[in-house]
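[recover] target loaded
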C-alpha cells in the first residue's frame, strides 16, 4: 500500500491526491525462502521441453506436481513447521516468496504475481479488495487464523501508568502519549499491514466512528492523531527489525503490532487489546484466477488440511495466532475476552487519504544523511546508477523531511555537502535542488568509509530535533583511507546515548565488503540492504520504510 512515487518533474503542492500504491523494486525487497529443492511453474504447456526435460509453462518455468507457489506476508515465515507437517500429510510442497503485505498487493496489481505465483497468502485482503485491478485477480479466499493489532507494554511502564490491561482504550493511550507518559514503536503503514491496521485502529478509536472510517472521521480526529504519533519513536519496514531495535532502546515503552508478534518479542510484554476495538488480520490463503488447474486442486487440499483441528492446534501453539475453527482452544498465552472488530475503511480514497495524512502530516518528520561513495572506483556506470537512484528517490521524500547529501572520496567532500528540507507549501524547490545536486556528483579519490560516517554523526549532533534520524551509507568498496574500523567503533561508543540511537543503513553495492557493512549495521542498530542482488534504487527505496 505504497503511495505513488512523486515524479521527477516539478510538482505542485497538491500532490496528496496522488495516492496509487507503488511496488518496491529489486530482489532486495523480497526474501525467497524455498521449502525444498523442487521447482515449479504454471502448467499451460505441459509436455513442452526444458533443459531438464521437465514440463514448462508459457513463461519457460519448470513446475513440479504437488507444488504451490505462494506470495506470502513476511511474518508467515513462522509457519514453516506447520507447512512441513502439511507437506507430509498432503504431499503438497509450499514454495513461499516472502514480501511485505502491502508490497505484495502491488506485485499482484502489476501482473507480476500472475506469472510467478499460484496463490497469495497475506495478513489481510481488505485493501486488495478495494482495488479493481487486484480484486479481479483473486478467488477462493480461505481464512486460516487470526491475530489482532495490539499494544505490547514493558512491565515497568505498565506499573508506572497503573493500568488494568483489560480496560485500556485508544483514547487512554492517546492521553498518555499527549501527557508525555508513553512512547512506542510501529511499522510503516505504507509497507506493512500491521502498521496500516494500527493506523486504522487508532483513527477509528480516536474519531469515535461507529462504522467504516470516512474522510470526515479522519479530519475530525486529526488533531488527536497528530498528538498520538508524537509518541512514535521507532519506525520500520518490518516487524522483525522493529523488535530488534526496540530491544536496544530503553526510552521506548511499547510496540504496536500483531498480538502474535508481541507475544513472541524478546522480553515479557503485557499485551493490551484496546477494549474499544481492534483491526484483526485473518490470513486468507487466496488463489489467483490465473493459477493452473493442478495448483487449484493442490490449494484446495492444503487449505482443507490447515483448517483441520490438528493443524489449527499446531498453528495456535506454534505461532500464537488464534484458530478459526470452532472447538479448537487458543494457545494459553492468548486472552479469551472478546473485542469489537473495527471495520476497514469503506473506500480506497479514505484508505489512501489516511496513509497520505500519516506520511506528510501526522508522523514525526525524517532527517537523513546520505553518505555517498563518490571515489574513483565509482566512475562511469556505477556513478550513473547512483545518480539515477537518487533522482528516482526524490519522488518518495515526505513533507517536512530534511535530506543531506554527503559525498565522500578520500574524505568527505565538504564543498559538495548540501542539506534540503521539503517545505509542504513548496516541495518542488527542495526536490529540484536534490536532483541537481545528484547530477553534479563526480568520482574521485579513495574510500574513507569510517571517517565519513564520523562526519555524518558530527553533523547530526550539531542540531537536535524531534525527528526519525538515520544515516544511509552507500559504498562500492572497502575502506582505503582515513580512520580504521576500530576508530569508528570507539567514536560511536563515545557518543551520547541519544546519538547512539541513530542507526546506519549500509547498502552493499559493487565490490563493497559485506563484513565491514554488516559490522556497521550491527554496531549502530541499523540493517544491511543488498543492491548486488537487485537494483540500487530498489535498495534506497526499501530503506524508506525505516526512516
Amino acid at each position: 500500500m505504497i503511495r505513488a512515487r512523486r515524479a521527477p518533474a516539478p510538482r505542485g503542492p497538491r500532490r496528496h491526491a496522488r495516492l496509487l500504491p507503488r511496488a518496491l523494486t529489486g530482489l532486495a525487497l523480497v526474501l525467497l525462502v524455498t521449502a525444498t529443492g523442487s521447482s515449479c511453474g504454471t502448467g499451460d504447456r505441459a509436455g513442452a521441453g526444458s533443459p531438464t526435460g521437465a514440463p514448462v509453462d508459457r513463461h519457460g518455468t519448470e513446475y513440479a506436481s504437488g507444488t504451490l507457489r505462494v506470495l506470502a506476508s513476511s511474518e508467515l515465515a513462522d509457519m514453516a513447521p506447520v507447512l512441513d507437517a502439511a507437506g507430509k500429510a498432503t504431499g503438497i510442497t509450499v514454495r513461499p516468496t516472502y514480501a511485505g503485505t502491502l508490497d505484495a498487493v502491488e506485485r499482484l496489481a502489476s501482473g507480476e504475481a500472475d506469472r510467478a505465483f499460484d496463490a497469495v497468502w497475506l495478513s489481510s485482503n481488505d485493501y486488495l479488495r478495494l482495488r479493481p485491478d487486484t480484486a479481479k485477480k483473486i478467488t477462493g479466499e480461505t481464512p486460516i487464523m487470526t491475530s489482532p493489532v495490539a499494544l505490547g507494554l514493558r512491565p515497568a511502564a505498565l506499573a508506572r501508568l497503573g493500568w488494568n490491561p483489560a480496560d485500556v482504550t485508544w483514547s487512554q493511550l492517546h492521553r498518555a502519549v499527549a501527557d508525555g507518559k508513553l512512547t512506542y514503536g510501529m511499522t510503516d503503514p505504507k509497507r506493512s499491514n500491521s502498521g496500516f491496521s494500527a493506523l486504522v485502529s487508532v483513527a477509528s478509536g480516536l474519531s469515535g466512528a461507529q462504522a467504516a472510517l470516512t474522510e470526515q472521521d479522519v479530519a475530525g480526529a486529526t488533531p488527536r492523531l497528530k498528538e498520538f504519533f508524537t509518541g512514535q519513536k521507532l519506525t520500520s519496514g518490518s516487524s522483525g527489525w522493529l523488535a530488534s531495535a526496540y530491544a536496544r532502546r530503553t526510552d521506548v515503552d511499547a510496540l504496536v503490532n500483531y498480538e502474535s508478534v508481541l507475544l513472541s518479542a524478546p522480553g515479557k510484554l503485557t499485551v493490551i487489546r484496546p477494549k474499544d476495538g481492534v483491526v484483526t488480520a485473518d490470513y486468507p490463503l487466496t488463489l489467483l484466477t490465473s493459477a493452473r488447474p493442478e495448483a487449484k486442486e493442490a490449494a484446495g487440499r492444503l487449505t482443507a488440511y490447515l483448517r483441520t483441528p490438528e493443524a489449527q492446534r499446531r498453528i495456535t501453539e506454534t505461532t500464537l495466532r488464534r484458530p478459526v475453527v470452532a472447538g479448537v482452544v487458543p494457545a494459553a498465552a492468548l486472552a479469551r475476552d472478546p473485542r469489537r472488530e473495527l471495520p476497514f475503511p469503506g473506500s480506497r480514497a479514505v484508505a489512501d487519504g489516511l496513509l497520505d495524512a500519516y506520511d506528510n502530516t501526522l508522523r514525526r518528520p525524517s532527517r537523513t544523511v546520505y553518505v555517498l561513495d563518490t571515489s574513483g572506483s565509482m566512475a562511469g556506470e556505477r556513478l550513473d546508477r547512483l545518480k539515477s537512484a537518487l533522482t528516482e528517490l526524490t519522488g518518495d521524500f515526505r513533507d517536512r523531511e530534511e535530506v543531506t547529501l554527503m559525498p565522500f572520496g578520500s574524505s568527505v567532500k565538504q564543498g559538495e555537502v548540501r542539506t534540503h528540507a521539503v517545505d509542504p507549501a513548496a516541495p518542488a524547490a527542495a526536490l529540484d535542488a536534490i536532483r541537481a545536486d545528484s547530477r553534479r556528483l563526480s568520482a574521485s579519490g579513495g574510500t574513507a568509509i569510517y571517517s565519513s560516517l564520523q562526519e555524518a554523526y558530527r553533523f547530526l549532533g550539531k542540531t537536535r530535533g524531534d525527528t526519525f534520524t538515520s544515516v544511509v551509507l552507500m559504498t562500492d568498496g572497502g575502506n582505503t583511507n582515513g580512520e580504521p574500523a576500530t576508530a569508528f567503533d570507539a567514536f560511536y561508543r563515545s557518543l551520547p546515548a541519544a546519538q547512539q540511537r541513530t542507526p546506519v543503513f549500509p547498502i552493499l553495492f559493487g565490490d563493497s565488503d559485506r563484513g565491514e557493512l554488516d559490522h556497521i549495521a550491527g554496531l549502530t542498530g541499523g540493517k544491511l540492504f543488498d543492491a548486488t542482488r537487485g537494483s540500487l534504487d530498489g535498495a534506497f527505496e526499501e530503506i524508506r520504510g525505516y526512516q
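[recover] notes: Residues 476 and 509 are 5 Å apart (CA to CA).
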